[in-house]
């Protein structure tokens, strides 16, 4: 059963100042199964973020439609949680208040909000930072809060747009393990956009590779590595083989993209 | 000195005070040294003596109170109208398109030029004084608040939408809290401008207030009194500025981290 169906979706940005319109995404079809973890891998400018934003409802497709549980998406909503690449915690709210923001919008009582926020603070290891403001946290802690904020709202699907892109390598690796651990326990449907091959393979049960402008899906690779995954899996032969294959796929696109720009 | 290198807080206080000392020293040198005629510029001691005389025998405290009341009254009226309108303009583009051209035009109408008209309409009573300050501040406030609200980070709004916020929630729980420290800062700034309007309003058709005392003193060539009045305004401005800054720090601790 497909949780999310992307049907013939394309996006053309109108011309600016007498230029030509930008074809960000060619007509694309993609189905995501319930409780699946899909990574969308591609070089910058391949339309992967555009596709994710359209799933979130923050952008509208030029053609085609997107269905979540059979219902067409017309705008943003609480059923699709999103974690952005930029730090988007509300700076005037504490970590705990940030996590319960969506619950508050849905009119859930303060006591229940606190209980759910407390649970998620624990799951992302930030209990002792509950009353800190976002600016007092490191980048990794802020993104952990952002993940907790999105999941505390219990969305049908979690969308992540290069959430660890601005973090250093060590923090990034820890964040991947944390996210994967949460997914292994909660089994949410997740779409994770990244340009990092290792990240794409480590997290996903399925890697969708996208080509450079105009963006379209180029390959769809199943990742059959067993769960729970430990970070040492990154040095296994199976992991390396997948990584090598995706490196080839993506390299062609990166070369093309470099020639265009 | 290195560009942008910070200094200690004690050095900051010492440097700040030393300019005041330097200023008074130069003034004393010019007046006590006889370089400037007494008719045009009183010396600091005369100024203090005149000030004491004003306060103790002429009821100058009442004038100060009147002026403060007018500034605060006119400014609060302007803020009560301008802040909500500015927020709506910043948040909703059709409202902005409707009001922005007119407010931009009205902003350049000099408040002091309205004084003759306002005397005609409202007489020379308190209402006229309040209206001068109101006209001088309200359009500035509207525009500045609208810009602050309109420039709230777009990604914060998007994040709130993906968390299920609706129109009213975005306005109340994202746009307004995000812009609040900026709005407080704008109020502080425009209050400073309101002080210049009140004095102008009191120079014409007034029987009380600091500005009235200044224009009376001019007829008597009492430059000491005039300078005392000006310095009183400066001191009140400084106090209100610090009070505003302290209040902002207390209300928005997150914006200073």
Quick summary:
The complex is a heterodimer of chains A (261) and B (257). Chain A has 261 residues and is an alpha/beta fold.
Write the layout of secondary structure elements.
The complex is a heterodimer of chains A (261) and B (257).
Chain A: E1 2-13, E2 22-33, E3 37-41, H1 48-56, E4 63-68, E5 71-72, E6 80-83, H2 95-99, H3 101-105, H4 110-123, H5 139-152, E7 157-161, H6 169-186, E8 189-194, H7 197-203, E9 206-210, E10 217-222, H8 237-260
Parallel strand pairs in A: 3-8, 3-9, 6-7, 7-8
Antiparallel strand pairs in A: 1-2, 1-4, 4-5, 9-10
Chain B: H1 9-32, H2 44-57, H3 60-91, H4 93-107, H5 115-122, H6 126-150, H7 154-162, H8 167-203, H9 210-219, H10 223-251
Helix pairs in contact in B: 2-10, 3-4, 3-6, 3-8, 3-9, 4-6, 5-6, 6-8, 7-8, 8-9, 8-10, 9-10
Query: What's the CATH C level of chain A?
Result: Alpha Beta
CATH architecture of chain B: Orthogonal Bundle
Helix count of chain B equals 10
Helix-strand string of chain B = HHHHHHHHHH
What's the total count of β strands of chain B?
A: 0
Distance between the termini of chain B: 26 Å
Pair of chains with the largest interface and how many residues each contributes: A-B, 28 and 23 residues
The description of the largest β-sheet of chain A is: 6 strands, mixed
Give the biggest sheet of chain B.
Answer: none
Number of helices of chain A: 8
Please compute the radius of gyration of chain A using only Cα atoms.
Answer: 19 Å
Q: Give average pLDDT of chain B, whole number.
A: 91
Whole-number count of domains of chain A = 1
Distance between the termini of chain A: 40 Å
Q: Segments of chain A where pLDDT lies below 50 for 5+ residues?
A: none
Fraction in helix of chain A:
25-40%
Indicate the overall shape of chain B.
Answer: globular
State which percent range the strand residues of chain B make up: under 5%
- CATH topology tier name of chain B: MetI-like fold
Structural class of chain B: mainly alpha
Q: Report the CATH superfamily of chain B.
A: MetI-like
């Amino acid at each position: 059963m497909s949780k999310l169906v992307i049907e013939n979706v394309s996006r053309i940005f109108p011309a600016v100042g007498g230029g030509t319109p930008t074809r960000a995404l060619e007509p694309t079809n993609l189905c995501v199964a319930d409780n699946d973890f899909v990574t969308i891998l591609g070089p910058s400018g391949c339309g992967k973020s555009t596709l994710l934003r359209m799933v979130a409802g923050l952008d509208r497709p030029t053609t085609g439609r997107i269905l979540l549980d059979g219902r067409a998406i017309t705008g943003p909503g609480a059923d699709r949680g999103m974690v952005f690449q930029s730090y988007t915690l509300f700076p005037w709210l504490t970590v705990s208040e940030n996590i319960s923001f969506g619950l508050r919008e849905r009119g859930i009582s303060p006591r229940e909000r606190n209980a759910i926020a407390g649970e998620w603070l624990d799951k992302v290891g930030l209990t002792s930072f509950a009353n800190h403001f976002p600016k007092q946290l490191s980048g990794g802690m802020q993104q952990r809060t952002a993940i907790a904020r999105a999941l505390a709202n219990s969305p049908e699907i979690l969308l992540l747009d290069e959430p660890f892109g601005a973090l250093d390598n060590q923090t990034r690796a820890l964040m991947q393990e944390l996210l994967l651990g949460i997914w292994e326990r909660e089994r949410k449907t997740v779409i994770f956009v990244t340009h990092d091959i290792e990240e794409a393979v480590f997290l996903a049960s399925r890697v969708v590779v996208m080509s450079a402008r105009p963006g379209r899906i180029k390959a769809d690779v199943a990742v059959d590595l067993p769960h729970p995954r430990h970070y040492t899996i990154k040095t296994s032969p199976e992991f390396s083989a997948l990584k090598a294959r995706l490196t080839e796929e993506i390299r062609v696109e990166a070369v093309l993209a470099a020639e265009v720009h | 000195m290195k560009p942008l290198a910070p200094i200690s807080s004690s050095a900051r206080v010492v440097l700040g005070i030393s300019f005041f000392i330097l200023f008074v020293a130069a003034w004393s040198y010019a007046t006590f040294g006889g370089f400037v005629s007494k008719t045009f510029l009183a010396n600091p001691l005369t100024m203090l003596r005149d000030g004491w005389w004003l306060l103790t025998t002429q009821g100058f405290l009442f004038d100060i109170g009147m002026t403060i009341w007018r500034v605060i009254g006119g400014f609060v009226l302007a803020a009560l109208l301008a802040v909500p309108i500015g927020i709506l303009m910043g948040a909703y583009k059709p409202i902005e398109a409707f009001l922005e051209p007119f407010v931009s035009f009205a902003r350049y109408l000099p408040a002091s030029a309205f004084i003759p008209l306002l005397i005609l309409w409202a007489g020379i009573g308190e209402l006229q004084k309040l209206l001068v300050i109101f006209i001088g501040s309200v359009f500035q406030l509207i525009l500045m608040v609208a810009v602050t609200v309109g420039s709230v980070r777009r990604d914060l709004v998007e994040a709130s939408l993906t968390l299920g916020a609706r129109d009213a929630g975005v306005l109340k729980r994202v746009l307004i809290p995000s812009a609040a420290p900026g709005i407080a800062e704008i109020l502080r700034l425009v209050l400073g401008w309101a002080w210049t309007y009140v004095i102008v309003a009191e120079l014409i058709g007034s029987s009380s207030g600091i500005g009235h005392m200044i224009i009376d003193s001019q007829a008597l060539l009492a430059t000491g009194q005039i300078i005392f009045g000006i310095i009183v305004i400066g001191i009140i401005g400084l106090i209100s500025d610090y009070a505003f800054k302290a209040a902002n720090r207390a209300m928005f601790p997150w914006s200073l981290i």
